[in-house]
Design a protein that fits this description.
By secondary structure, the protein is α/β, with parallel strands linked by helices. It folds into two domains: about 100 residues, Ubiquitin-like (UB roll) (Roll), CATH 3.10.20.10; about 130 residues, Cytidine Deaminase, domain 2 (3-Layer(aba) Sandwich). Helix content is about 25%, strand content about 35%. The chain has a six-stranded mixed sheet. Strands 5-6-3-4-7 form a five-stranded mixed sheet, covered by helices on one side. A hairpin with a 2-residue loop joins β13 and β14. α1 crosses α6 and α7 packs parallel to α8. The chain is flat. The chain starts with a strand and ends with a strand.
């Protein structure tokens, strides 16, 4: 399966050498080609550590959540290249060319660092800058989600996490409708990468905005995941783990329903509880 690797380990409980399945983490360089004064320019936007799979969705979602593109149609073409130095060493590049009439200020977006698999906010000049990428106003009255369905969603996400089931080392992000039907599940060693993959999927399949759907994440609710979800107008965000204080503040400010600690037939609603039907 893509995204998995076999590594020899010593199993202490049996004191023997066995093979273990681990989640792959390797770099993806995202290169942007764009026109400036009628000249085609080429710049590396980011190098992110991610799990192989859904690279197209990851790159597109990253460009959208960073405010570089406003819609999928602004992309002219996407190309991938591989540099295989050793058997298990791959340096992958994703080159995205924008259409000619798409203007961008590259100095505003370019990051001069590696984006780790655990943190994607680093390098921004301010939190306010990232919130500028939220183009939608959420309507408080929609959608509605029954409590019984809400409590089932983390388990439905988990059973569709193929990489996690074999490694225990990936984050999952799922998109569901309010009846609990799964639309899409993405996985990655980095939670922000998994979210970008989901955003890319939504853009490619013309699902944006997602104001009638629900996003479920397998871990905690960080500021960055809330910000990225707001970019695609997610109104209900459900986390298996805890939210951060800033995640709660931003969700409240933007009228997002934020639910945390969703497990064991219980959950905490941190903002906009009116969307959850409890009776």
């Amino acid at each position: 399966m893509l995204g998995l690797s076999q590594k020899p380990i010593i199993k202490l409980s049996h004191n023997q050498l066995i093979d273990d399945t681990v989640c792959i983490e390797e770099p993806l360089e995202i290169i942007l080609e764009f026109y400036s004064h009628q000249q085609l320019k080429r710049e590396t936007i980011a190098i992110t550590m991610r799990t192989p799979g859904n690279e197209k969705e990851l790159a597109i979602g990253f460009l959208y959540s960073e405010g570089i593109i406003d819609k999928y149609e602004e992309i002219d073409k996407i190309e991938f290249s591989f540099d295989c130095a050793q058997d298990e060493s791959r340096n992958q590049q994703c080159v995205i060319r924008l259409i000619k009439n798409k203007f961008i200020d590259i100095t505003k977006h370019k990051r001069h660092f590696y984006t780790s698999s655990s943190c994607g906010v680093c390098g921004k000049t301010s939190i306010d800058l990232s919130l500028e990428q939220c183009p939608f106003i959420l309507i408080k009255s929609i959608p509605k989600l029954k409590k019984e369905i809400l409590l089932q969603l983390p388990e439905r996400l988990k059973i569709n996490q193929a990489i996690f089931s074999k490694t225990g080392g990936s984050h999952g992000v799922g998109l569901f409708d309010t009846n609990g039907n799964m639309i899409c599940v993405m996985e990655d060693v980095g939670r922000h990468n998994a979210m970008d993959k989901l955003i890319g999927y939504a853009l490619i399949n013309n699902l944006n905005p997602l104001q009638d759907q629900v996003i479920v994440v397998s871990g905690r609710a960080s500021f960055e995941l809330i910000q990225k979800s707001l970019c695609i107008a997610c109104s209900i965000f459900i986390a298996v783990g805890a939210p951060s204080s800033l995640a709660v503040e931003i969700a409240s400010e933007f009228n997002m329903t934020l639910v945390g600690f969703t497990k064991n037939n219980n959950a905490n609603i941190y903002s906009c509880p009116e969307r959850i039907i409890t009776i």
